[in-house]
Write a structure and sequence with these properties.
about 200 residues; 7 helices
Length: about 200
C-alpha cells in the first residue's frame, strides 16, 4: 500500500470525526511519511510500521467514544515486511559467488545444451528447406539427378516446414528462459530494490 492509498483510507474511516480534527490527524500521518522518507524508508515500509488504516481509525474513534460504522473496502490489505531494500555490498558479493557456483555446476551446462539444440535444429530446418536449392546447384554443375532425389528433396522441405513450428516454440522458450535467469540473478544480487 502506498502513502496516498493509506491516507485516503484513513480519511474515509475517520469521517465521523470533526473535519478540523480529522485534518490535524491526517497532517500528523503525512508528517510520519515525510520523516520516514527522509530516514530512507519506502512508503510501503512506513505503512507497515504504522499498521492498517482500519485499526488506526478504530483506535482513534474508540478513544473518543465514537461508534464506528462499517465501511466497505474494495480490497483486503495485509501489511508485509518490505523486501525491496537494496542489499549491502558484502551480501551482493556473497550472493554473487553463490550464484557463480550454481551457474558453473548447473545453469550454464543446461543453457549451453539448450542453445546448442536450438542452433542445431535451426541449421537442420534451414538445410531441409533449402534442399531443392542444393539439388539445383548440383544440376548446374552437371550432376545427374535421379527421381528419388527429387522426391527426397520435396519430403525434406515438408519435414523442415513441420520442424519450423517446433523450433520456433523452442527458440521462444529458450530466449524467455535466458532472460528470466538474467532477471533472477539481478534480483537476487541487488535484493529487488530500486537498483534491480
Amino acid at each position: 500500500m502506498k502513502k496516498q492509498d493509506f491516507l485516503n483510507e484513513l480519511n474515509q474511516r475517520l469521517e465521523l470525526l470533526d473535519p478540523k480534527e480529522r485534518r490535524e490527524l491526517l497532517s500528523d500521518y503525512q508528517e510520519h511519511f515525510r520523516n520516514g522518507i527522509e530516514a530512507g524508508k519506502s512508503e510501503e515500509q512506513i505503512v507497515f510500521d504504522l499498521g492498517k488504516p482500519e485499526e488506526i481509525a478504530a483506535d482513534i474513534l474508540s478513544e473518543r467514544d465514537i461508534r464506528e460504522e462499517h465501511v466497505e473496502t474494495d480490497y483486503y490489505y495485509v501489511p508485509r515486511k518490505n523486501q525491496n531494500e537494496n542489499r549491502s555490498m558484502s551480501k551482493q558479493i556473497l550472493i554473487g559467488v553463490g550464484l557463480f557456483f550454481l551457474d558453473i555446476c548447473l545453469i550454464i551446462p543446461i543453457m549451453v545444451s539448450l542453445w546448442a539444440l536450438v542452433i542445431s535444429l535451426w541449421t537442420t530446418v534451414g538445410a531441409f528447406i533449402l534442399s531443392p536449392l542444393l539439388l539445383g546447384v548440383g544440376l548446374l554443375f552437371g550432376e545427374e539427378i535421379e527421381v528419388y532425389q527429387m522426391f527426397m528433396s520435396i519430403g525434406l522441405v515438408g519435414l523442415g516446414l513441420m520442424l519450423l513450428f517446433v523450433v520456433n516454440i523452442l527458440s521462444s522458450f529458450t530466449i524467455k528462459t535466458t532472460m528470466a535467469i538474467i532477471q533472477w540473478h539481478k534480483y537476487a544480487v541487488k535484493g529487488g530494490g530500486k537498483n534491480a
